[in-house]
Amino acid sequence: MSSPMFSTVVVVFGLFSAFVVSANAQSAADPPSTQQPVYTLHADKRVVLTDVTVTDRQGNPIRGLDASAFRISDNGKPQDLASFEEHSGAPVESVPSAVTKPGMYSNDFLQHPPPVFNVLLIDLVSIKNLPYQMSLRYELTQFLNRLQAGEPLAIYMRWGPYLMLLQNVTSDHALLLAAVNRALPRFPSHEGIRILSEVGLIHELALDLGKLPGRKNVFWFCGDVGGDPFRPDPTTLSGYSDLRPNYDELEAGRIAIYPIDARGLFDPGHMWGALWSEHLTMTNVAEATGGRAIYNRNFVAEITQHLIDASNDFYTLSYSPHDFRYDNSWHKVKVTVNEKSYFLSYRHGYFADGNDPRNKAEDLEPAGSRTKLLANGETIEMKEIRGPSIVFKAHVVPASNPSSTQAKKGAIPYTIRYTVPLDKFVMRNVDGKQQVTMGFASMAFDANGNSTAKLTQEVTASFSQQNLSVSGQPVYSFEQPINLRDGENYLYLGVWDANTGQFGTIQLSLDAIHPKSRSEH
User: Fold this and answer.
1) How many Å is the Cα radius of gyration of the chain?
2) Pick from 231, 228, 271: which is nearest to 247 by CA?
3) Is residue 242 included in any domain, yes or no?
4) Fewest CB within a 10 Å sphere: which of 103, 182, 386, 458?
C-alpha cells in the first residue's frame, strides 16, 4: 500500500524553483522548433492567442478547415485573424527515456518537446473510495498497455494538501505504469487537515506546466469535486477578481483541462443534487480552460485513448482586439465555424488587466523582481530569468564508501553524480583559462512529505582551451552526498549558472534500500 507523499516543490522548494524558466525561449545558436512556434507579443497591443479543437458529435477531430471557416468576436465585436495555424495529425515524436541505466535521470525531454504535452492527473482528494481507485487503476493500466509506442506523457497526483509529480514526461510505458501503481490505491490519511483546493490545484499546475512550450492537455481523473471555482465567464462569481491571476496563468500557459469522472456511470440515489453540482464544476473548468468534461461514462481507458489520439488536432488563432484598452474587465471570446453541427472547445475569455505573463518578449522592459511565498510563510524577492532550461543528467546511486558520508541514524547514504554540458554556461577568461561558476542543489522528502535532506553548493571550475576542445560536447561532473530514508523517497535536483541564473531541474522518485536488505537479495 502506498504512503502519503510530499508537496510539489513548486511551493516547498521556492528557494531555487523560481529560476525554472520557460522552455519555449531559444538561444541564438539553436534553430527554431518546427513543432512549437514562438508567438511574439508586443507592448503596444494586446495579442489574444486561442487554441480551438473542432470535433464532430462522436468526438472525432475535424481536420482541413482553413481560416475562412472561423469567425471570432471579442465582447461581441468581430475580429480579424492575425495568424492561423492548423495542428493536424502530427507524427508522434519519441521522447528519449530519462533512464538509460538504473538510477539515471534526465530532463532531456526538453530537447525534443512533443507537439502537445499530455498530462494525467490522478486526484485522490476527490476519489477517496477504494473501489473507485481500484477501478481507475485497472482502467489506466489498460490505457497505458495499449498506448501508442513513443507517445509521451507525464503523471501528477493530488494528495491531501499536495500536488505531486509522479513521473516526468516520458514515453517509457514501464515508468508510466510504475507511477500509476505508486499512486493507486491509497488510503485517505489527510482527514481533518487542509487540502489543496481546486483553485490551488489549477494554480500549481499552471506554475509547473507553464514553463513548457506550446499547448498542454491535463486529463484530470476526479470524482467528488466542488466549489465551482472556474466558469467560462468569471463575472458571475462573487469576488471573481481574486481569480484574475489564475485565469492569466491558464491563458499564458495554454493549459486545457479535461475533467474525467473516474467513477463512471452509476446511480447516485438521493445524492443526485450533489452529483449534478460536481458535473457542473467539471463542465465549468473545461469550458474555462478550453478542454472538455467527460462524466456519466464507463470505459475510462477507451475515453482517455480517444482524447489522447485526438490531442494533436487543433487550430491556433490569434488576433489583436480593435480599440483595445486595459480596463481590468473580462473580455468574452466567441469562436464559431460555418458548420453548425461541429463541437468547439476553446478558452472563452481573458482579463484585460495588463498582467499577461507571456509579455516577456526580448523587446519588452525587464520584468524586474517578484515576490515568492515559501512554505514556511517567509517571502523572498527573486529576479525574473529568461531563456532555455539547462538540460543535465543525474545518477543517484548508493554511496560507494558509506563510512565517509556523515549519515544520520536510520538514513541511507547515497551519492548524486551530476553531468552538465559546459557549452550551456557563461565562461569568463581568468588568467588565460576559462572559468565557470555552477550551482548544485538537492532536496529529499520522505513518503510523508517531510524534508529529510537539503544541500546547496556553488562550484567554480577552470578549464584550458585544450580541455574544452575535446571531441563531442564538453561536460563537467560533480558528486553530491545525500541521506535517504529506507523506502519511498522523492528528490528535487537543480543546476544553475551562477553568472546568468539560468536553471534546470529534475524531479524523481526513488525506492532506497538499506545495504543490509540489498545483501539479502
Assistant:
1) 24
2) 231
3) yes
4) 458
Tens of pLDDT, residue by residue over 40-79, are 444 457 899 999 999 998 889 999 999 999 999 999 999 9
Q: State the residue range of the domain holding 510.
A: 386-520
Q: Are 388 and 31 in contact (CB under 8 A)?
A: no
CB-based burial, 415-434: b 16+ in 10 Å, e otherwise: bbebebbbebbebeeeeeeb
Evaluate the omega torsion of the peptide bond into residue 185 and state whether it is cis, within 30 degrees of 0.
Answer: yes
| CB of 392 closer than 8 Å to CB of 506 | yes
Question: CATH number of the domain that 418 lies in?
Answer: 2.60.40.10
Considering the domain architecture, whether residues 152 and 271 belong to the same structural domain is answered as yes
Per the structure, how many domains does the chain have?
2
Q: What is the CATH number of the domain that holds 227?
A: 3.40.50.410
pTM over 0.90: no
3-state secondary structure of 397: strand
CA 54 to chain centre: 24
What is the C-alpha to C-alpha distance for residues 490 and 508, in angstroms, rounded to an integer? Answer: 6
Which among 275, 292, 312 is the end of a domain?
A: 312
| pLDDT lower than 70: segments of the chain | 1-44, 89-100, 189-193, 267-272, 355-387, 401-409, 447-449, 470-472, 514-521
Q: Tell me, what's the pLDDT at 424?
A: 87
